[in-house]
Specification:
Blueprint (H helix, E strand, L loop, with lengths): L1 H22 L19 E18 L10 E21 L2 E19 L9 E21 L2 E20 L12 E20 L1
Antiparallel strand pairs: 1-2, 2-3, 3-4, 4-5, 5-6
Length: 197
Amino acid sequence: MRHLMSAISMAAAVAVFMSQHALSDGVPYDGVRTSVLSYNWSGFYAGAHLGGTWGTTTAEDLLGYNAIGDTWDADTSGFVAGVQAGYNWQWGALLFGIEGDVGDLDVHGKGTTTFAPVGFDTSSQAEAGFYLTMRGRLGFVADHWLLYGTGGYIGADTRVSVLDACNVTPPCGRSTIDARDQSFRSGWTAGGGIETF
């Protein structure tokens, strides 16, 4: 009987100790182990962005003012600023979404012909301003981290010009060819990134 009472006393002491330990973090211990739910990325979001851009445009002489097939490149660069918005659906660790943005590319660049006989007198210039995109998004979620890829439509207001000073090769003399075009052009865009909070 004394051994039984000692065992009961020991069990009671252990039970009191365990209950005190479980309450030490402010959460009662109910004998069931629970885990904190992972963050859910589903829903609407919006924001702003600021960055830089760079690229290359190519001009080609199709009519033979210099030489048919003469080509040269113009390196373009500039700042990007705009706003974006989208909506995500999370299914387990996978994320599906749609998003779009509008902003200003502020891209510009200039290049000159590499055809030596014309004295490098022909140049082209390219610029881009207002742009918008509409893209799909596919990602992998790991709690507070999101790794994703995105791709879809992009449209941009572009301005291009070609200037031929025509001051070296006869019979041009000192005449000038100045051609310009401004239009809204469409294409595709793709990218990816990592997000966290």
